[in-house]
Amino acid sequence: MDPRRYSLIAAITFSVIAFLQLSRVVLGWPLTAGGYPIPLWANWLACFVAVVLAWLGYAAWRSSD
Questions:
Q1: Which distant-in-sequence residues (6+ apart) come within 8 Å of 55 by Cβ?
Q2: Rounded percentage of the chain residues whose pLDDT exceeds 70
Q3: Considering the entire predicted model, what is its pTM?
Q4: How many other β-carbons are positioned within 10 Å of the β-carbon of residue 50?
Q5: Calpha distance 59→11 (Å, rounded)
Q6: E-assigned strands of the chain?
Q7: Comparing C-alpha atoms, which of 38, 46, 50, 44 is closest to residue 25?
Q8: Alpha carbons 18 and 39: distance in angstroms, whole number
Q9: Residue 30 above 70 pLDDT?
Q10: What's the confidence (pLDDT) of residue 57?
């Protein structure tokens, strides 16, 4: 797999993850891991990180010609 295609796949993957994290916050879906509830602020942080990683993937995809 060439680096350009890898960057695009990573960008799409992180975009989907960001969308799912944002969906949980907006819809208020409860989440429990190992018996402990995960607070919504953790999803805001995860959404921000996923958006940054998606943006970096798209930037790498566009710049590699």
A1: 11
A2: 98
A3: 0.87
A4: 20
A5: 9
A6: 32-33, 36-37
A7: 44
A8: 16
A9: yes
A10: 96
